Amino acid sequence: MSTNISTAESFRDKVATVDKKGKRIWVFPHRPKGKLYNLRSWMSLAYLIVFFGLPFIKVAGHPIFLINVLDRRFILFGQIFWPQDFFIFALGMVVFIVFVALFTVVFGRVFCGWACPQTIFMEMVFRKIEYWIEGDGPQQKLLAKAPWNTDKVVKKTGKWLAFWIVSFLIANTFLAYLIGVDEVEKLITEPLSKNIGTFVSLSVFTAVFFFVYLLMREQICTVICPYGRMQGVLLDRDSIIVAYDYKRGETRGKFHKNEPRAIGDCIDCEQCVKVCPTGIDIRNGTQLECTNCTACVDACNKMMEAVGLQTGLIRYASENNIVNKKPWQLTWRMKAYSIVMCLLLGILVWLLASRTDVGVTLLRTPGQLYQKQPNHQMSNLYNYKLLNKTFRDKEVTLKPENFDGTIKLVGENKLVIPKDGYVSGSMFIYINNDAVKRRKTNLKIGVYEGKEKINTISTSFLGPFNEN
Ligand code: SF4
Ligand code: SF4
């Protein structure tokens, strides 16, 4: 019994694309054809239009998306986020991770097959170029084995050149998300010496993309990607995955025309294996290498139609679906993840909704106690920093909210915060001696733009030790 299990599961002891000597087994998948592949192609086209088009969309002259890590400038959906808003990012990341976990528990790796940039660029851009230049999988295999004759040199050089051009385009777009399309444009219009840093980044990104899509390929999904590695803990018997219906398919055997079929529906044509871009046999069961690309679903459906059997031998299904013919249902794990995700999402929405256009930091100047002033007043010195998270200059005033006193800026008459920038300085708060009844008085200060209150700051005022 144990011998049978270890034999049946022995494929799990090795990576499908590495041989016994540890050498890479190059995969030459056949060109997929079918309804799901067509649907994925259209979806990928929409995805590519958005990916390449988004950096060019501007709101009030600014990119709608910018993730400038070096200068710590972030614009999402036209809204400026400063490093001070980082807690929103952090929470957004937590929500995203819980969402990914929940999504995977329910739908398996459907993201990998349909929306992951790696799959879209590999299967829908680079692979298509490869099919166009070198032909289908078997021809590519023959070409790889062939000596370096004129045909091979022309095809390989053509492919490398095409791959390099596409990698260069992706690198430009990627860079535009990081530094903005205007900076990338400068690289084209201005002398190279003025933009040497941008040029180096662009060259490095281009080389990385070229290397990934020419050589690394499916290894990114099967060996490197951490999301792929997490499948073992996220998937359960109710997760929907691309699955082979072994109940229906086994015992497999060749199809013989005009002969009654007394065995399973799998005709052992191996078309599902031949189209697989990760080089696995889905009939072995759920495997970490499977990116749920559905190429095997299309290939098997085509064969089933050709021999007059029912399609769906390989389909989206859960293990329980296949074994017990049980309809899909919500499990306790899915319900628990959903509750956590709704809670986190609620907090995130609240944080985004209550986020103000002007961020304020007000701290008492370190090392300073209170100062005695004429006219029975005392003062505290503060350092302020006001951030403008919009694309227009803002003039603001600070007004006492819960105390009778005055606020005086040091060296400034008015507070003008430049667009997408900040202003900082020092200020005094003066309060009548009678109003300071304890060592530390809590103050509230309103930040006004015209008559509109846009923020409220809380701070404290230090009084003498020995009074009350
Ligand atoms: S087994 Fe099927 S779905 Fe999974 S990667 Fe291979 S072809 Fe794609
Ligand atoms: S394509 Fe379908 S019929 Fe052919 S080997 Fe794969 S599972 Fe069996």
Kindly describe this structure:
The chain has 468 residues and is α+β, with helices and mostly antiparallel strands. Helices cover 43% and strands 20% of the residues. The chain has 17 helices and 16 strands. Strands 8, 9, 10, 12 and 14 form a five-stranded antiparallel β-sheet that branches. The protein is elongated. The site of one iron/sulfur cluster has 13 residues, from helix 15.
Rg over CA atoms: 31 Å
Bound molecules: iron/sulfur cluster
The largest sheet, given as strand count, sense and whether it forms a barrel, is: 5 strands, antiparallel
| Helix/strand structural class | alpha+beta
Distance between the termini: 85 Å
Query: Shape from CA axes?
Result: elongated
Mean pLDDT over all positions: 88
Number of helices: 17
Q: Helical amount among residues, as a percent range?
A: 40-55%
Strand percent estimate = 15-25%
The number of distinct β-strands equals 16
Low-confidence stretches: 1-6
